[in-house]
């Protein structure tokens, strides 16, 4: 694969994947609440997106799921949760690892 796929393609694919994710939504006690992406970390072929719920948000409430959204509000990834939020900050992480296979050959 190293001979076929160039680093520029891999870089474009991983940055493209990251760019599709523009926001987040967390289901808190049955209500959908939008959150910004707190932080994005790109490392090699991995993208991590973080959502942060502050110390004062949703205290004592149940967190049911977190979703990453595209620019139109469509869910791209959903992570189930079963957490009662306390008075500490709460960080939710999503990680995507790109795996690519390529083959060469003629007809």
Tags for this model:
107 residues; mainly beta; elongated; 7 strands; 4-stranded antiparallel sheet; 3-stranded antiparallel sheet; single chain
What does this structure look like?
The protein has 107 residues and is mainly beta. The chain has one domain. It is built from 1 helix and 7 strands; from the N terminus they run αβββββββ. The protein has a 4-stranded antiparallel beta sheet, with no helix packed on it. Strands 3-4-7 form a 3-stranded antiparallel beta sheet, with helices on one face. The longest helix has 14 residues, at 7-20. The radius of gyration is 17 Å and the shape is elongated. The relative contact order is 0.25. The model has no long low-confidence stretch (mean pLDDT 93).
For the sheet with most strands, the description reads:
4 strands, antiparallel
Through-space gap between termini: 19 Å
Question: Over the alpha carbons, how many angstroms does the gyration radius reach?
Answer: 17 Å
Quickly give the structural class.
mainly beta
Number of helices: 1
Q: What helical percentage do the residues reach? A: 10-25%
Strand tally: 7
Count of the separate structural domains: 1
- Please indicate the percent range of residues in DSSP E strands (runs of 2 or more): over 45%
Compact overview of the structure:
This protein has 1 helix and 7 strands; from the N terminus they run αβββββββ.
